Amino acid sequence: MPAPSHVPNDSTATIVIGGGLAGLAAAAFLARAGRPVTLLERAPTLGGRAATADRADGVRWNLGPHALYRTGEAMAVLDALGVSPAGALPPTAGAAAHARGRLHRLPAGPWSLMTTTLLGLRGKLAVGRLLGALPRLDPATLAGRSVADWIDGTLADPRARELLAGLVRLTTYDADPGRQDAGAAVAQLQRAFAGNVLYLDDGWASLVDALADAARSAGAELVAGVAVREVVLADRDGRAAVTGVRTADGRLLGAGDVVLAGTSAMAAALVEADGPAGVVHHWAAGARPSRVACLDLALRSPLPGPSFVLGTDRPLYLSNHSASARLGPDGVAVVHAAKYVGDGAGSRPEEDERELEELLDLAHPGWRAKLVDRRFLPRLAASTAAVSAADGGLAGRPGPVVPGIDGLLVAGDWVGARGQLADASLASGRSAAEAILAGVEAPRVADPPAALVA
Ligand SMILES: Cc1cc2nc3c(=O)[nH]c(=O)nc-3n(C[C@H](O)[C@H](O)[C@H](O)COP(=O)(O)OP(=O)(O)OC[C@H]3O[C@@H](n4cnc5c(N)ncnc54)[C@H](O)[C@@H]3O)c2cc1C
Questions:
Q1: pLDDT digits (tens, 9 = 90+) for 135-172
Q2: Domain boundaries defined on the chain
Q3: Which residue, by CA, sits nearest to atom 5 of ligand 1?
Q4: Looking at ligand 1, which atom is closest to the CA of residue 43?
Q5: What is the structure's pLDDT at 82?
Q6: How distant, in Å, are the alpha carbons of 76, 315, 370, 381 from that of 359?
Q7: Which CATH class for the 14-49+206-287+388-453 domain?
Q8: Tally of CB atoms within 10 A around 88
Q9: What is the pLDDT of residues 313-345, one digit of tens each?
């Protein structure tokens, strides 16, 4: 196991656990402020769910489809760190909707809305009105209301409702409209329509590498291949306080602050449930993941069908990411197909894979003869904590400061009131660093949260 070279046992040092986007952002902001910081990543390489696989034939696959929101929190964080992602907008010309076993033109503007066979006249008018009004909707007024309830109250036409539900799935990965928060969904739709997304050249590893460079050049130590087993706490003047971490191979590394940067399950695994950090277990227990079954493909190009397909009556997605981003050699198309499977509890991987193959048969007949490489990943967590109406929407999310423990912070896609997916990971990584730099004190907790003792 690689040994971290400097982990000073002084209270100004921070250990960041997790080398995904959240951890890298936290480490970079701390290092730029002159703080000693060491990041420990369990895997042999940095990146977490933003990693990109290099295939033998020069093809680069993200972990399922990845698109960076151009006007989201992630971009603001990257900009602050001097990282400018290179990539391009997905092609919209010829984009298709999949409904009732057929492909239709996907309404992406006034002309495609008027001419699509996806909707009847009433549906077209209703969708046109909704898209016109979308920029003026106030997401805060919809917080706490479910997406299903909002869609039912907004659109009467069943096919228009399906389309809206499909757009919400596309932008949030959440396939559970009965529990999903409408305020967060509308904010995400606004972001998508206002600024669209980028498919990144060379995959999301380009982001990971640039963030790692930003952190290292500011003085952070990033160590891959070191797993942390637990966060070590001590009593300091009657308060619980972080003193460091213990690695999986038994080393004790001292620090005044620890950032748990990853999933809520990871955070909970590193602190005791019945101690002062029990609240972290409470957060993890309440997290509702949004999972996707992903079929990642490399196919000889050109492909006969549309570059992009969104399922409206089925939770399906298909996109040729190399139609706009550089992800492989000339003559090879990098295509991601996905099925949104909610929390994954009822998903059937074999059926999901077959359904994705059938979508490919429809969109790109003859694709099997063009196959260069494929990979099926049945239950990836695109979000480890979808935003739920019952929690009051984004405002109900925890962190970054863990109450009741001095020096313990969390970051990840489940943390903080800003953004979803990578936007939340990067924004919360930055917030955790800023809370440390500002010396924000952990709020006192007199008793465990009510939900813990109920
Ligand atoms: C299929 C899929 C599609 C997605 N599409 C999009 C998209 O289009 N747009 C978007 O914005 N976002 C998307 N995302 C989400 C985005 O990838 C994540 O939000 C982001 O990468 C999560 O970063 P993170 O740092 O919060 O967590 P993670 O990437 O999960 O990083 C946590 C890290 O902690 C490490 N770790 C765990 N336990 C330990 C331990 N004990 N010791 C040390 N290290 C440990 C893990 O190995 C991991 O590297 C997608 C995700 C998936 C899976």
A1: 999 999 999 999 999 999 999 999 999 999 999 999 99
A2: 14-49+206-287+388-453, 52-68+198-202+288-383, 107-195
A3: 66
A4: 47
A5: 97
A6: 36, 11, 16, 22
A7: alpha beta
A8: 14
A9: 999 999 999 999 999 999 999 999 999 999 999
